[in-house]
Write a structure and sequence with these properties.
This protein is an alpha+beta fold. The chain has a single domain, classed as Aminopeptidase, CATH 3.40.630.30. Helix content is about 25%, strand content about 25%. The chain contains 3 helices and 5 strands; from the N terminus they run E-E-H-H-H-E-E-E. It has a 5-stranded antiparallel sheet with strand order 1-2-3-4-5, with no helix packed on it.
Length: about 100
């Protein structure tokens, strides 16, 4: 279970297939956005959909979609992968796809 995280300006909800969009694909194909990611570029809506399905099925990954509270716009993601419950460990990454939010 991925908990909801909330601040004054943002709400982070579980990333799911409903977040699969042309906007998200454009982030993954934007060289400035993916510059520090392990993968990036040459994404399609189909590849993103398959990736999101695999993430949803993996219990060792926590993945949140970052939304603006003001208009519910999806602006990025937070990922903890792999999660080691026993030791309370995991590596995290943040993707801010919407450049206007940088």
């Amino acid at each position: 279970m991925v908990p909801i995280l909330e601040s004054e300006r943002l709400i982070c909800k579980k990333l799911s297939l409903e977040h699969c969009s042309d906007q998200y694909v454009s982030w993954l194909n934007d060289q400035e956005v993916y510059r520090y990611l392990e993968t990036g570029g040459n994404y399609s809506i189909e590849l993103l959909r398959e990736y999101l399905k695999s993430v949803e099925a993996n219990e060792k990954i926590l993945f949140w979609a970052i939304h603006l509270k003001s208009n519910n716009e999806h602006i990025g993601n937070i990922k903890i992968d792999p999660v080691n419950i026993r030791h309370g460990l995991g590596e995290y990454g943040i993707l801010m796809g919407e450049r206007a939010q940088w």
